[in-house]
Structure formats: C-alpha cells, structure tokens
Amino acid sequence: MKTADNVWEKIVELQEMNTSYLKKIKSLVTEKKALSDFQVICYFTYSLNIFHEQGNENYCLGSFHIQNLGGRPLTNPYICIKISPGSPFDFSGKYLYKDSKQKMRMTDAWERINDPMDKQEYWLKPVEKNVLNPSETLSFSNFQMRWLPESSYAGSIMGFTYGDEEKDGISSLNQINISGTIIKEGGNE
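Now predict its structure.
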C-alpha cells in the first residue's frame, strides 16, 4: 500500500511541477510578445516664469521627449509642435533650416521641415538620428515661448510624433495650457 501512496504523491508532485512550468512558459511568452510590440510615447516637460503685470515678458522653457517603450524601433522619427490659433506665444528653439550650413557643428540638431513662415506648426526632424531603438529617448530640448500680454490671454501647445511605423501620428501624453489675466491699474482688465 505504501508503494501506491508513493506513486500518488509522485503524480501530484509532478502535476504541480507541470503547472508551475506552464505558468512560467506562459509568462515568458507574454514578456516576449510585449517586447516585440511597438510602443512609443511622447510628452512635454516645461517650466514657466510668469509675471501677472502688464508689460512684463513671460517665458515657458520646455522640451519634447519621444520614448520607445516597445521592442521594435521607430524609423525616421519627426515631430510636430502645434500652437493654438490666437495665442500670444512667440516660439523659438534650437533648429536649423534645410539649407543651413551649421548642421555639422550642432550636436543633437533638429531641422525644420515645413514653411518657416508658419507660426502655428513646427515640423521638426532630428538631423543625426534616423532610428529610435527600444529603450531609447529622443528629445527636442530647450525650446522657448515668450509672450508680452496686454490683457487676458490663453493658449495651448500640442505635440505629435510621427515615423515610418506611425504615419497617422502619436499624440503627446500631455500638452501645455497657459492662461492668465492681467489686471490693469484701477482693478479693471
């Protein structure tokens, strides 16, 4: 009888090991599938320097980041930074134009690829980076927005990332929304 009990104990032990192995295999397959998935996010980081007085210049210093969290690369990345119509913001940043001779001297340079006269959309691509590999981050750093409000103001800055794998674009996780009221002397706007 002891032999039959030992056999059943061994069978139960083997079934538990088999279940444990199957769970581990399923976990590894799920991990491997996640690593092969395409997952890119983008977001803004920024700081503000705002004066709530008429005639004082306000600033926003920001960066736009693209992060590849997936297992596949993003090829030929480019971005669009869009400023809402009617906003008082004057956008500037470290970017070059197609015919600029400075491309070779600037590290982490970005090139503006749309009409330089457009003051609402800034389409930019990195000069030296054609592929954003898994676990890498690409940043358009230290852009500035300035505005000199005379009365109440409001505006938004939105960001989008594009590439060969994302022709329709990826919207940023956040946007920059700024509004304010300037009180003129005497308490009226």
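The chain has a mean pLDDT of 85.
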